[in-house]
Design a protein that fits this description.
Shape: globular
Enzyme class: transferase
Keywords: ATP-binding, Cytoplasm, Kinase, Nucleotide-binding, Transferase
Largest sheet: 5 strands, parallel
Bound molecules: cytidine-5'-monophosphate
Main location: cytoplasm
Pfam families: Cytidylate_kin
Distance between the termini: 15 Å
Mean pLDDT: 95
Family: Belongs to the cytidylate kinase family. Type 1 subfamily.
CATH topology: Rossmann fold
CATH superfamily: P-loop containing nucleotide triphosphate hydrolases
CATH class: Alpha Beta
Number of domains: 1
Strand content: 15-25%
Helix content: 40-55%
């Protein structure tokens, strides 16, 4: 018998990673933050000063990087970069890196390797549609753009440098790029359960998800 995957997709700031982490803890599954994998590659590109139009160099360096997600932390070439990948410069660049099909293949491979010998809860944009199309259960989380912007603003490590309005604009732009790219765009899988998290607490959302998981299991 194979291992189970639970897919959680949705736009930026919908609360995916927080609830995915909590859900994984409640049911004893391993959490994978697929966005963190794209963010780590983006960090490498920025660190090396590579032009985002230099696709070949980006692919070369991504292939030659050691990227791992374990114990809820993201590692790039052996260093824990979990905080670094939350800088706002990554938010505004990552969608361009995530458009590149070869980069997506690298990230898909990492996720499938982690899930090859364990049960996983994975959050992202293409998990239910592309990475784990046979996932045991699929969720699509959303929320109003105002609430999503506020959540992301409150998460910022360099808050003083940005306004809420600016973050809202960035989110709208990032969602647009993610939903309109050719390679596995942000899309709700046909068999995904839609949850609107606007005005709901984290606990409420996790309870709702647990209900579906136990109904199914
Ligand atoms: O979820 P998070 O905001 O960390 O994702 C960062 C970016 O990584 C997204 O805006 C998107 O461009 C990309 N991404 C993706 N597919 C995923 C996860 C993230 O394209 N499965």
């Amino acid at each position: 018998m194979g291992f189970n995957a639970i897919a959680i997709d949705g736009p930026a700031g919908a609360g995916k990673s927080t609830v995915a982490k909590m859900l994984s803890e409640r049911i004893g599954y391993t959490y994978i933050d697929s966005g963190a994998l794209f963010r780590a590659i983006t960090l490498k590109v920025i660190k090396l000063g590579i032009d985002i139009n230099d696709i070949e160099r980006i692919i070369f360096h991504a292939r030659n990087s050691d990227i791992d997600f374990s114990n809820n932390k993201i590692y790039l070439d052996g260093a824990n970069v979990s905080e670094k990948i939350r800088d706002n410069i990554i938010n505004t660049t990552v969608s361009y890196i995530a458009m590149i099909p070869e980069i997506r293949d690298i990230v898909v491979e990492i996720q499938r390797k982690i899930a090859s010998n364990k049960n996983v809860v994975v959050d992202g944009r293409d998990i239910g549609t592309t990475v784990f199309p046979n996932a045991f259960i699929k969720f699509f989380l959303t929320a109003s753009v105002e609430e999503r912007a506020l959540r992301r603003y409150n998460e910022l490590t360099d808050k003083k440098k940005h306004t809420l309005e600016e973050i809202k604009k960035q989110i709208i732009e990032r969602d647009f790029i993610d939903a309109n790219r050719e390679a596995s765009p942000l899309r709700q899988a046909e068999d995904a359960i839609l949850i609107d998290t606007t005005g709901k607490s984290i606990d409420e959302v996790v309870s709702e998800m647990l209900y579906y998981v136990f109904m199914k299991g």
